[in-house]
Amino acid sequence: MLGLPEVITVALFDLDGVLTETAVLHRKAWKKTFDAFLADRAGGVDAPGFVEFTDQDYLDYVDGRPREDGVRAFLASRGITDVDPATVAAIGNGKNDMFLVSLAEDGGHAYPGSVRYLNAARDAGLRIAVVTSSKNGGPVLEAADLSGFVEVRVDGLEIAARGLNGKPAPDSYLLGAELMGVEPAAAAVFEDAISGVRAGSAGKFGYVVGIDRVGGGQAEAMRAAGADIVVNDLDELLPA
After folding, report:
1. At residue 236, does pLDDT exceed 90?
2. Is 14 known to be catalytic?
3. Is the pLDDT of residue 115 over 90?
4. Name one Pfam family in it (predicted).
5. Of 68, 22, 93, whose CA–CA distance to 160 is shortest?
């Protein structure tokens, strides 16, 4: 009744863009941060060398990755390799400051379809964990009033403390399964980011669900990355 194989007993949900609408806040904060950096480097937004940060850049290089991994991946895509670790950290921290202001102003709203799915999952006895690269996992869950659903949370703070590789490596999801006391084959991964879908596939989880919130070629890219199924909203997995 949950659209999952019978062997699945644990659901490992990404947070931003899967359960909550906060991926939009992240994307806007990244754009402001990177555009300011790129403009400063080029000599202004009207300079010939300035090329703005796009939604596709977010999807390709930043979405789902730990903060500083995303900074390095995007800068490398623009051929920028001379940035020191302190600058990488400053870019990431500046973005996070913007995100936290937006979270305080706008709130961390949950997708209604995700709330319906979480209620159905809990009623059916499916155990629930959140696995997110964000270091703001706790505040986002609280803002969206979703903490009561979550048995285990693996977030960016835990990933950094344990020295784990971020998505697309499967480490964070493997830790989530371990903390829930199951093998990967008994857990389903729910992701809106290509990096997260790749992580679920690399970890050999029992089922990988892609959630396409952006359209275009995203669903096809998710299938190519290893998604077993792609939906536009979680409640599409529920019976009509």
Report:
1. yes
2. yes
3. yes
4. Hydrolase
5. 68
